[in-house]
Structures are given as C-alpha cells and as structure tokens.
Write a structure and sequence with these properties.
- This protein has 51 residues and is mostly helical.
- It has helices spanning 2-12, 22-40.
- The longest helix has 19 residues, at 22-40.
- The protein is rod-shaped and about 70 Å long.
- Keywords: Membrane, Transmembrane, Transmembrane helix.
- The chain crosses the membrane at residues 20-42.
- This is Major facilitator superfamily (MFS) profile domain-containing protein.
C-alpha cells in the first residue's frame, strides 16, 4: 500500500516537486510508530496447566 499511496500523492502534486512526497512519508511514519507501540504492548502467551 505504501508505494501505491506515495505514487498517488506524487501524481496529485506533480508541480510541487519534493513537497509532494511529504504527506506519504508522514502517513507511513505514523503507521510505523503505531505498529511499534502495539508491538511493545504485546504479552507472551501463557501456558495453561492441567487441572
């Protein structure tokens, strides 16, 4: 999804030059930070003991 989204932003802002890439990088960066935060909140699975 990332490269496709970046291409859409680049095509939409063809006259803006390098600034056309800025929104795509911000969105991808936020997605990466969200994934890292979710990864830090993971807990290892617990082994159930037979009762």
């Amino acid at each position: 999804i990332g490269p496709i989204m970046a291409g859409m932003f680049k095509d939409a802002g063809a006259t803006k030059g390098v600034d056309a890439w800025f929104p795509a990088f911000i969105i991808a960066g936020v997605a990466c930070l969200t994934a890292a935060l979710l990864g830090l909140m993971l807990k290892p699975p617990r082994v159930k003991t037979a009762a």
